[in-house]
Design a protein that fits this description.
mainly alpha
């Protein structure tokens, strides 16, 4: 009985860590996908599941059900791709990485065309998207 409870505890530790990480004060949207994928990989690779295989398989399935929709949301994938910690590392297939990269570049191009500062700047290619900061004059305080 105690060994079974110990295995349940070991199986639930990564889930507790995910919950704490995603509920912290300074968690960003860009951390959701990597944390969920890390949890899924951790659960799949842990072979200390004798007696709790059903629980483990249901946790893996539930993780997929809850977090797979985030892989289809442009906001979540773009946030993850633009975060220097993660970039495209957590996107498993080349097709997904290509799709996310294309989405990010398309959105950047749209934003650069909408910005009045960037209207005069035409990128040479989609990889050279940039927008210079507008020149601001210094404000002098009169005393």
């Amino acid at each position: 009985m105690w060994s079974l409870l110990e295995k349940v505890k070991l199986l639930s530790e990564p889930l507790e860590k995910l919950t704490r990480d995603l509920c912290s004060y300074d968690t960003c949207l860009s951390a959701v996908l990597p944390a969920a994928l890390r949890l899924k990989l951790t659960l799949e690779s842990d072979n200390r599941d004798v007696g709790v295989k059903t629980m483990k398989s249901r946790l893996i399935a539930a993780t997929g059900e809850r977090f797979e929709p985030f892989l289809k949301q442009d906001a979540a994938t773009t946030a993850t791709a633009l975060d220097p910690q993660f970039k495209l590392v957590f996107f498993k297939s080349d097709a997904v990485r290509t799709t996310v990269r294309s989405t990010v570049l398309d959105k950047a191009l749209i934003l650069s065309q909408q910005s009045p500062v960037c209207q005069s700047v035409t990128p040479q290619s989609s990889t050279e998207l940039w927008c210079p900061l507008p020149h601001t004059s210094k404000v002098h305080n009169e005393q």
